[in-house]
Amino acid sequence: MSILLIEAFYGGSHKQLMDLLKGEVDGCVLYSLPAKKWHWRARTSALYFMQAVPPNDTYRVLFTSSVLNLAELVALRPDLAKLKKVLYFHENQLVYPVRKNQERDFQYGYNQILSCLVADIMVFNSAFNMESFLTSIGTFLKMIPDHRPRDLERLIRPKCRVIHFPVQFPDVSRFLPEHKRLLQQNRSYSLKSSEASFKSSDELQKSTTEPSHLPKLSLSEQDPIPQSTELISTSLREDTSENVNLVMSEPSSSTLRADSQRPLHIVWPHRWEHDKDPETFFKVLRKLKEMELPFSVSVLGEMFTDVPEIFSKAKAFLGSAVLHWGFLPSKDDYFQVLCQADVVISTAKHEFFGVAMLEAVHCGCYPLCPKSLVYPEIFPAEYLYSTPEQLSKRLQNFCKRPHLVRSHRFQGETVPYSWAALNSEFRSLLSAQPSEDL
After folding, report:
1. Span 392-402, mean pLDDT?
2. Which of 125, 227, 277, 321 is least crowded, fewest Cβ atoms below 10 Å from its Cβ?
3. Are 72 and 22 within one domain?
4. Nearby residues of 19 by Cβ (< 8 Å), 6 or more positions away
5. CA neighbor of 336 nearest in space, from 363, 302, 298
6. For residue 96, what pLDDT is reported?
7. Both 178 and 138 in a single domain?
């Protein structure tokens, strides 16, 4: 055992990352606390781990998330202070949204700044996360009434780097409907060659910034689809408010005709909390309902103690449009719903990465995300909207013409965010010997 993993909030993406590292990287031992009462984990988990983690001379690296106050832990446990200390930021508390600014607890952001000062390396899951944290340090510390520390961004920035969250994309082929299976087969060889090409961080950065190299079939290469091409061209001309780039692919005319009988299936796979802005999502759905447009919806994601009231109200007015409602503990059940869905929506006010959106895209969903936060870093512009009104117009069009999304091939990449692409960077990060790129 040479790598000590500590997770103060062992749930969601925090749990996914720790389980992945423990399972894939030799020499890891994990100590954790359940994903409950986040605020108390941030306040007191260092004291718990001081007692829970036994001394061990074989430890060389300490890897933890920014929920833990690392400064407190290494002060309480000087033996751990000697290790190579890696701090991973799934989110940052300097810009984490609160309903009112006076509700922001200074202590949580302050803990993260202290942790950065004692850590050897800080890793962020996105450039947006890193820059929003670093550039907010000065403003955040102005909350201190006097005798404020200075130049902390200058001290912290050189130790920071971005390594995207490594998603383990499962094989979902057995769950895919026919039209998605055909689209997936059309691009499968490209994905395999893409995974093989990720040998260095330079190649990874290039792949996340350059346009997709996936092949696009010309209309002459496809099965004849009576009236479909003309209808798509007409609908795109009608949808002048958005730059929608929809690419036809392999599904046959019989498949499309069968699919046209099903209403558009919308999925919202996020935590049931205010920062994911469920109010905007359900307001858009209410508009679709009032227009008597056909759609069905699955509202997934984890629920915690305080569920916003909007969820019970929304379930009532959505009525028979609801296909699935609530958290699905079985991963197979979860991915099966994503595979059956057509469009995945984010209305988040806060998102530093967005595993759920990438998982849904992997399952063949058409993503619609805010043109803000981390999303422009991950998704091409055609999948971004600027206002709830733009989101509503896109969904209105898709409800009327569901074949638009069912015949669409995603024009971005998911491979750069996979464990296959990122595992070498994490192995280097967890190496006891500092490498040149650190």
Report:
1. 97
2. 227
3. yes
4. none
5. 363
6. 76
7. no
Specify the number of domains making up the chain. Answer: 2
Residue keyed to tokens 């992997």? 362
CATH code of 323's domain: 3.40.50.2000
CA-to-CA distance for 376 and 355, rounded, in angstroms?
Answer: 15
Tell me how far apart the alpha carbons of residues 398 and 432 are, in angstroms, rounded to a whole number. 52
Confidence band of 185 (pLDDT split at 50, 70, 90):
confident
Alpha carbons 374 and 377: distance in angstroms, whole number: 5
Dump pLDDT digits (tens) for 367-381. 999 999 999 999 999
Three-state secondary structure call for residue 84 = strand
Q: Is 141 within a domain?
A: yes
Q: What span, in angstroms and rounded, lies between the C-alpha atoms of 333 and 344?
A: 16
Does residue 205 sit within a domain? no
**249-300: pLDDT as tens digits:** 455 555 555 566 799 999 999 999 989 999 999 999 999 999 999 999 999 9
pLDDT of residue 256: 53
Would the pLDDT of 130 be above 60? yes
104, part of any domain: yes
Residue 83 sits at φ, ψ, to 5 deg, of -80, 165
DSSP assigned state of 234: H
Q: Which domain holds residue 266?
A: 173-200+212-415
Residues 262 and 401 in one domain: yes
Q: What is the DSSP letter of 29?
A: E
According to DSSP, residue 435 is labeled P
